[in-house]
Amino acid sequence: MVEQNPDIAIALASVQSRIGPASQARSFYDGDQPDVYDAKKWRNQFGPNVAQPRDNMCPLVVDTVVSRLQPKEFIARSKDATDETGATGANDIAKRSRWDQTAPEVHRSAGKVGKAAVLVGVNSRGQAVFYPKQGDEVHFQYDPESPGTVAWTGFVWTVGGAVRVNLYYPTYTERWITNNNTWGAKLPQQATAFRPFDDDGKDSVLSNPMGRVPWFEFALDKSDLSPVFKLQPALDMALCDLLILSRAAGAPQRYVTGAAPVDESAPAPAPGLGQFAAPVPPPLNPPAPDLNLTLAENYLDGKPGKDEIDGLHIETGPDQTWFLDDPQAKAGSLPAAELEGTIKLLDNLRTAVLRDTSIPPHLAMMTTGDFPSGKALKTAEAQFVAKVLARMIAWGNSWEDAFAFAVQAELSHNSRGEFIGLAEMPALELTWEDPHTQEGLTEEARLDALIQIGAPVSVILADSMDYSPARAAEIEKLVREEADRKSEASATVFARGGLDMAA
């Protein structure tokens, strides 16, 4: 009988607890949110082709942060040869593995559900490979005696109704699969439901010569969308209310009183009456005025001459004139409903979402973004930038560890993917693009400001003319040499008492 590993149950319980919240977060991000109105009533009002709208703020909340998390390159933490070589190797791996696409994917996944994970492996050519995974599928167990050190990880996923569990330890990996394929969204919670997996011809236990767990975690305290979950349904309802109100009373309502609808079964009106309402003879004893209103169809489609007041055969349009023969008949209109209150409610709810997620309103296009100074812009983005900087530190550490391990793994394997001995791990540092908004000044204004303060030529070229730092330094050197040459020529001419012809 196979001895069961109790870590299986720990990993299953951890993953099961995150399935519901993670599913909700992804659904909200994708706009797949619960309807706020009864579906049948909505179809009766708008027909089958108009879905209930969503004022979905979730992509904005997540993607605005992701857009400012722009990694630049890895540099060595010291001038040690191992570190410098490792930095070069890490940048080569980043380029080869298209890390510029992988990094935003990982950051977005972590922002959605509060966690993402990356597995680093080695292919048959001895190259490091990155495998981004959903964070809710991976359990990280940390060593209580060594803070920050991963003792083991459990990766849980489903294949055709079966549940797979891989347990990664520093020196080996265990592979498990359920005894049957009848499991759905509900994961088994007992290790006895699993057997060792060797169906692919490999052993159920694989060695790991690298001596550390090859998983790296990108975690948050909670999902970026946590503050949005309670406000998003209210936003959707306010938007639906606006649509309903606009359809029902967004345009002036026309009415006619004192004229009876035309009987469709009666003979056609005498020639010359055209589209006018048939006159109604007054009764011998006129009753009290009828205050009931006959409301016109909403004039919503913008096509004059196509709508008629129900039952009266009176055409509407700028070229139409109404004639009512009944002296008691009167026509008028009711004003359109005021929509400003509902629109203001929508804006207030959006502002609440931005406030709770530290997103500046100008990045959500709720304000113009025109600031009187760069300092004012910096102040407006202070909380947001602090949020981004915190992630650069935390997730930068994870990327540094992942790429240092990747470099070490490549140096420890030959071109056939065979382990040849454990190489030394480099110490790397990840640099990032500045998360502050760089559009406080126009290009011309920034160039003028740099010239006014006497900035070096290399700074002006790099900042305002997009020269590379190396090329900017080279041009500055040439400018300095030319200035020195002119200065020497001027001094020589002045000493001879002549004119300076070199200038």
Question: Can you describe this structure?
Answer:
With 503 residues, this protein is an alpha+beta fold. Helices cover 38% and strands 16% of the residues. It has twelve helices and 14 strands. The protein has helices at residues 7-29, 39-46, 58-68, 81-96, 99-113, 231-249, 340-357, 374-380, 382-411, 443-452, 457-464, 469-496; strands at 71-76, 115-122, 128-134, 138-142, 150-159, 162-168, 172-178, 194-196, 205-207, 215-219, 253-257, 294-295, 330-334, 428-432. The strands form four sheets. Strands 4, 5, 6, 7, 8 and 9 form a six-stranded antiparallel beta sheet that branches. Mean pLDDT is 82; it is low at 271-308 and 499-503.
**Count of DSSP helices?**
12
Main sheet? 6 strands, antiparallel
> What's the helix-strand series?
HHHEHHEEEEEEEEEHEEEHHHEHHH
Give the overall average pLDDT.
82
Taking pLDDT < 50 over at least 5 consecutive residues as the criterion, the unreliable ranges are 271-308, 499-503
Helix percent band: 25-40%
Query: Per DSSP, what share of the residues sits in E-state strands of 2 or more residues?
Result: 15-25%
The tally of beta strands, per DSSP, is: 14
N-C termini distance? 95 Å
Structural class comes to alpha+beta
**Global Rg:** 36 Å
The gross shape turns out to be: flat
Chart the SSEs and their pairings.
Elements: H1 7-29, H2 39-46, H3 58-68, E1 71-76, H4 81-96, H5 99-113, E2 115-122, E3 128-134, E4 138-142, E5 150-159, E6 162-168, E7 172-178, E8 194-196, E9 205-207, E10 215-219, H6 231-249, E11 253-257, E12 294-295, E13 330-334, H7 340-357, H8 374-380, H9 382-411, E14 428-432, H10 443-452, H11 457-464, H12 469-496
Antiparallel strand pairs: 1-14, 2-3, 2-10, 4-5, 5-6, 6-7, 7-8, 7-9, 11-12, 11-13
Helix pairs in contact: 3-5, 4-9, 6-7, 10-11, 11-12
